[in-house]
Each structure stands twice: as C-alpha cells, then as structure tokens.
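A reminder before we start the practical. When you read a complex entry, don't treat the lines as separate problems. The point of joint prediction is that each chain is placed relative to the others, so the output describes one connected object in space. Small molecules and nucleic acid strands, if listed, are placed in the same frame. In the example below there are two entries. Take a minute to note the order of the lines before looking further.
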Amino acid sequence: MMEKPLIHINHVTFSWDVEPVLEDVDLKIYDRDFIGIIGPNGGGKTTLVKIIMGLIQPLKGKVYFREDLPRLKRPIGYLPQVKTLDKQFPITVIDVVRSGSLMRHNPFSSASEEKERALELLGEMGIGHLRKRAAGELSGGQMQRVFLCRALISDPRVLILDEPGTFVDNRFEGEFFERLKTLNEKMAILLVSHDVGTITSFVKTIACVNRKLHYHHSAVLTPEDLKAYNCPIQVISHGDIPHTILEKHNGHA
Amino acid sequence: MHDFWALFSFGFFQKALLAALFTSISAGIAGTYIVARRIVFISGGITHASFGGIGLAFLLGFNPLVGAALFAVMAAFGIQFFSEKIHLREDSAIAIWWSLGMALGIIFVFLTPGYTPNLMSYLFGNILTVSIQELWAMLLLLLLLTAFFARYFREILYISYDEEFARASGIPVSLLNYLIMVLIALVMVMNIRAVGIILILSLMTIPQATANLFTKDFRKMMILSVVFAFVGNITGLVISYFLNIPSGATIIFTLVILFALLKVVKTVTRNIPVKL
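Here is the predicted structure of the whole assembly.
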C-alpha cells in the first residue's frame, strides 16, 4: 500500500487579479522528503508556501493534510522569507523563539520546559548568549538563526523554509545545511530557494515553480531540464560543493 | 506640610487618587501596546473622534462618556474598515475619522441650547471632579482590560511583533486585533476624565517612552509604564492643587519632566548597567 502524503497540494490555482500566479499546482510531501523548490523571482514560490501555511486561500484546489496532522495546531515549522520587522519592537530573543510553540501541536507541559528547549536550540545555533537581548539589536544572520529556532521549537513533522540563505553568512552556510540534513532524519523539509547551486547538493528532489510546478524526482538538474520546465534560472556552480548540477543524467522518472 | 497631608483626607482628593491609579494602570498597559505597534496616531484618531459622541450626548442629554465610548468604538472599527476593506491609506483613514468626530462634536455642541459648562473638562480633563459612578466604571473596565491582557498576553505579543507568523501559527489574529482596539478605545474614553481628549495621547506614550529607556521587554515595559504613569499622575495632581493650575496639563508636564530627568540620568550613567 502506498504511504499517504503528509501534505497534498491538490491542483491548486491562485491569482491576485487576472493572471494566475500558480496554475494547477500539484505536489505531495511525504515523510522524510527533502524537496528543494526553485524558480525565478515572481514565479510563485512564496505564494505556494503561503498557501500551504494557510495565509492565503487558493482560488481553485485545496491543500490536504494527513489525518494525524490536526487542522489547527499543525506540526509545521515555518521560516518565512526575510522581511523587515520593527527593529525597535520591545521583545527579547528568547520570546521570539518561544512564539513558535504557542498554538503548536507539541505544547510544553510548563513554561520552564519551553524556556529550556528554547535555550537549548539557541545554544545549538551558537547564539545562546544573546537570549536576553532585544531582537532588534541582532544582525540579520543572527536573527535568521533565531527564526530557525522559532520554527523548530515545536518539533515539527514538516519544516518549510522560504529563502533561508538570504542572511546566512558563508561560515554558517555549510553548518546550516548539514543541520538540515540531520533534521531531515526526523522531519520532511521543503526548502525554497532561487539559488539552485547551493541547494542541489543537499536536497533529495527538486520542484521547479514558474506558475506551473514541475516535479523532478532527483536532485540533479541539467540546463536542459530547466529549459524543459520553463524555469529560467541562472545556473551557478559553487566550487566548494562536491555535486555539480551540470552533470548529465538520463533516468528521471 | 500640614496642608499636604490634610489634602489626603479630602473626599474629592481620595477619589482623584483612585482615578489616577486606575488611569495609570490602564494607560500603562494599553499604551505599551499602542507604542510597540506604532499605532499612536490611530489612538489619536479614536480619542478625537469621541468628541462627536460627547457633543451628541450634550445635545440629546445623556451621559457624555457613553456618547464618547460609542464614537470611539465606531472610529476604531471605521479606521480598520477603511484601510482594510476600502484600501484607503491608513493615515488618511485616521485623519478622516479624527476630523469627522471633531466636526460633528462642534456642530452638536453649537446646536445644544444654552451654555455647556463641562465642555472644557472633557477637552482638557479634570481629575478632581471624578464621581463615584465614574470610578466604578473605570475599575470595571480596568479589570476587563487586565484580565484580557493577562489571558492573551502571549498572543498579543506575538501578533504585535510578527503578525504574519502569528497568523500562520493559527492565532485568530483579526479577531484579537478588533477586540484589543475596542478595549483600547474604551480605555481611552475612560481616561478622558483624567487628562481630557486633547492630552490623552500623552498618558499612552510618555510613560512608555520613559520605561523604554530601561527595558526592551514588552512585559517589563508595561509594568514600568504603569509605575511612571502613576508617579507622574500623583505628582502632577498635587502640584496642580497647590499652584491652583489645571490638573490635566500639569500631569502631562510632570510626565515630560520625569522623562527628561531620567533620560539625562540614563545618559550620564550609561556605563552602569541597570538590573531589572
């Protein structure tokens, strides 16, 4: 018997006005999947993420969640795209992390337990010493790690990351993707990026979103694939990453 | 000195003290939210719009604070509605409600036959004339506000910081936003008696600015704001009594002086960490 997907994006169409941003997008996310979502700017990647998170409603189609993922308190960890939040807002780093656990499926039995978990995560990211600082005083890269902690505090079954690389510095990048690999042993990951080169060496499969979605059942993409998928992406080759995305391959399902 | 202590035995002064306490707590809590979310001018629009209700109450002969509450809540919804559903720029929506309320108030007061003696006390406040009934209403509203903020503190904090993430988490963002705005509109109306429509924003912002000198934590900022608001209220009240000048204006003046003093102290002692 086929395993049921955790999340099934079932023939979803979305538009802000006349032109559809997403058209008949269908994607199944299974346990322990690690899907890289690539596509050009304005291709609908973030829109797709927002539909999964329930922030916007599709025009047509629906997103189904497996029965063991309750409708409310969904066990999904979410790292939104970098946006400017009020730098002067009076909130401490640890409170930002803890905000990821309210309303989630895995509530802690006590506030102190929740705090402990938040501190543990901050420590793992190497920013435990910043816990009492005002969030606005942190750098972009540090804040990105705080938001990753916020996404992870509820031990989600699915982790959705929207352009996590934006502020991650080179030193942390390798570490960051290694961490995702470890996390992937426990949860499915959906990673949105416009930078194909970086993600292909870590993800298991790739989906190309440019209004339509093309699912590529492997992490190796050729420029011909991208062309066939109508996915006009700059192919950047990173020297220090072992896999090359220009490798020739024949057997995609 | 004898005069000073005798003051506390007067019934009107005791009532004023209670009013100052209630006002400080509610303005400290609501004001921290307003300042943190940068919606000071929405609050300004709401208070000024409430003048329309006061005018209407004068004209039709009912309690002006009831009229003010009615208009304040209407303006709170109106501003949300104009900017969310009609896609008017938010600051324009604020200006429209702000001036519409004032304009209606002026027309209603003009149409009211005879002299309207209390009008000034609604515009500029007079904490020394607060009645027992008004104190009860203030207390009731204060309890409601405190209970709400205590129960939904984390939701309120998270919505204020990152509304979209809160929405993605499943927090009922819109509902809570509306409820908070209604509560804040009512709190501001309740505080009209202390400092008046024109000066009310000060109670919602100056103690918070002072608190913000010492902490960048929402919860601590609320508590400190209450303390600073109370100190300013009482000091201003006593000064206004002995100098025989208007209480509302004196309270605000005291709040600003307090802020300036502490700002200087903070700057001078910058290298000495303040533990809170």
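Discuss with your neighbour: Helices of chain A lie at 45-52, 93-98, 111-124, 140-152, 170-183, 196-200, 223-228. What might explain this?
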